[in-house]
Amino acid sequence: MRSLFISDLHLTPGRPDITRAFLRFLEQDAPTARQLYILGDFFEYWIGDDVMDEFHLQIAGALRRLSEHGVSISFMHGNRDFLVGERFCQLAGCTALPDPSVILLAKEPVVLMHGDSLCTLDTSYIRFRKVVRNPLIQKLFLSFPKRMRRKLADRLREKSMSAAREKTEPSMDVTPEAVTDALTQYQSKTLIHGHTHKPAIHDLEDGQQRIVLGDWDTYGWVLEHNPNGFDLKKFTI
Known about the structure:
By secondary structure, the protein is an alpha/beta fold.
């Protein structure tokens, strides 16, 4: 049976081409899989389940139809959509997946992560991540009026893009030590993550591997696991 992994679609009404590609993927490819894992940054941003509009309901409905077809869907938060909550998951027929998580593929443990926590050289972001993932901070943010949340989210996105331009390339990528620590902690030989937008299958020491999912932009990326192993596939949006 096939298991599929995707991340970093950054779905937004401003990129209808990516939305169409994703909906086509759900209709044509995903129904023959046993499981679909979404590993974060599925949406460009998320400021609360109570702000869902027609666009978000369209995506949730498409996922729900796939779930009703018999495909198990798991959703992991990313750094852009960590406020996706129970209401969206219920509408979409998906199960929330902690970051990190361990699943079994061919009876072997596989570590799943979004990937941002592996970028340990980016110390300013790691500090910021710790703050915004605090449940009390999230509860406070979600108590603000919707208009205020939108303004704060826009401001944070602008600040993030500005900071990214000043950071060095190594600081924005995962560190080998963090990868090794994750594999050791969970006694696994395979780590799958997104976030860095650098799709590849990296062979590591002692038969270990790190598989990086691709972001959807000019191309869409899907990792498939089947009886023959892993296959990282891309297609034109």
